[in-house]
Amino acid sequence: MSAASRDEMMTVAAARLLHDGDVCFVGIGLPSAACNLARLTHAPDIVLIYESGTIGSRPEVLPLSIGDGELAQTAACVVPLPQIFSDYLQAGRVDVGFLSAAQIDRFGNLNTTVIGHYERPHTRLPGAGGAPEIAAHAKQTFVMLKATPRSFVPALDFCTSAGFLDGHGARARSAGRGRGPCTVICDFGVLTPDPHSDELTLTALFADVVPEHVRAAIGWPLVVADHLDTIAAASAPELDALRALNARTQKAHAQPVRVPQ
Amino acid sequence: MRGAIERFIADGASVALEGFTHLIPFAAGHEMIRQGRRDLHLIRMTPDLIYDQMIGMGCVRKLTFSWGGNPGVGSLHRLRDAVEHHWPHPIELDEHSHAGMAAAYCAGAARLPFGVLRGYIGTDLPAQNPRIREVECPFTGERLAAVPALNPDVTVLHAQRADRAGNVALNGIVGAQREAALAATTLLVTVEEIVETLPAAMNAIVLPHWVVTTVVHCPGGAYPSYAHGYYERDNAFYQRWDGIARERGAFQSWMQRHVLDCADHRQFLHQLEAVKP
Question: What is the C-alpha to C-alpha distance for residues B273 and B277, in angstroms, rounded to an integer?
């Protein structure tokens, strides 16, 4: 078996953070892969909620969109979208929310709106979607994002979703009910908030990485924990399950669909 | 379809073509493009490919939305070009989060002036959008986010079935369609099938005939989105759209050939099947 790619390492590391029975609000992409990998390995009773209104989805292949028929077909129930946001997310019935972004700052605040000025942006990004309220109300959030100086920035161009705000307890004093971005998984390892300052601190590395690699990829002076954990390499069963899931998914998405006549 | 769009969608109208990934009314949107509608205020949580097409074809003055990407693929290039380079002309944005827009539709359906949510906490969105404000709870004093009700002139939906009396039933992923439908002044629904009697589908959403303005029979009307029980989402088409929409010229020739040069949706589907790779 070939060595794990960076995407695979991130996905496996994220999957391991999930516990059986956790209620997860899932986004598309790596988070969806991580949640389904957890479901197919150590957490068969994890509850996956997609914002389109599907609760308890058990998709055979990963969805391309957040509302693929596969998600509804395999769900325990499908509810109207306003209910997902009001009665489940806002009401505090979600354990883990997964987020990604174009930019993150040292307090885990996220930008998915614009690069440049809002009025005349250099790059217009898709925008908020469910993220601001996932960031506020999930009991904790996990962020998955590859580290480059363009993505881990000293100051966001726009704050779409609040993490620890300005740090030092600012979030705990805000109206956000959840604990915020408790884990950030990048392609070098894991950052977690300092218990006093809330600043994201490097606490674990993938096996082949040294802190200098991470420092070079992060746009602010990175704080490194005194003790650094090493993240165990992806096991054969983890990689097998993930690769089989990705292979099924690619095949399904390339499948020609009959145009209705 | 032609007559319904001519009659109910005027230049300058506010129009919500709803459907969260599922049941997106593509056929109705294409007919608006064929008829050269201008200055529309389009409303949709996820603009998706249909609004990318309408924006690129110059139909749109203002967009109310909460997530403007091609799901699982990347950017909506025509939306980006309009915002970044004002092509084909500038577009005004009224930008929200999903939770905010859902609250605005719920308020609209109930004919309340605003929706309330514990939302937009710590974000820059309220600073950019004066329609996102705060209210104080009269009972606890808590500060909550408020968004004005959305009441489109016209909401357009695609549904699986209607009966001859005009009752409409949809099921599967139903997004915020019920709320968008009841929030509108006029409700236009395209359907896969017109049946004698609607099946008693448990948990299906039924829009009773007196809230539905008109029903148009339009099989395949959601393609390349999907209609659960009829046809699947064409994920490969969504992936191909990234290449089609990236450059203005390629986009315009695709729209000319596949939408403007087709008399109706039946022809659109027919020639698309013929040219499929």
Answer: 9
Q: Do B176 and A80 touch (CB under 8 A)?
A: yes
Domains in chain A: ranges and CATH: 6-252 (3.40.1080.10)
Give the nearest partner residue to A28 out of B72, B125, B272, using CB atoms.
B72
Residue B155's domain comprises 2-95+151-275
CATH number for the domain harbouring residue B218: 3.40.1080.10
The type of residue at B84 is E
Alpha carbon separation from A65 to A230, A256, A258, B126 (Å, rounded): 34, 16, 19, 28
Residue A127 pLDDT > 70, yes or no? yes
ipTM more than 0.90? yes
Burial of A17 (0-12, 13-18, 19+ CB in 10 A): middle
Cβ–Cβ below 8 Å for B106 and A258: no
Chain A residues close to B97, C-beta within 8 Å: 128-133
- Check: CB of residue A201 under 8 Å from CB of residue B158: no
- The SS3 call for residue B112 is coil
Instruction: Provide the pLDDT for residue A113.
Output: 98
**B165-181 pLDDT tens trace:** 999 999 999 999 999 99
Q: Per-residue pLDDT tens for A13-72?
A: 999 999 999 999 998 888 999 999 999 999 999 999 999 999 999 999 998 888 888 899
Q: Do B175 and A137 touch (CB under 8 A)?
A: no
Determine contact, residues B68/B89, Cβ cutoff 8 Å. no
Residue B190 maps to a domain: yes
Residue B120 maps to a domain? no
**A1: which strand partners?**
none
Asked whether the beta carbons of B213 and B219 are under 8 A apart, the reply is no
Provide the b/e sequence for A190-204 (b: ≥16 CB within 10 Å): bbbbbeeebbbbbbb
The total of structural domains in chain B comes to 1
Catalytic annotation, residues of A: 51
Whether residue B107 is contained in a domain is answered as no
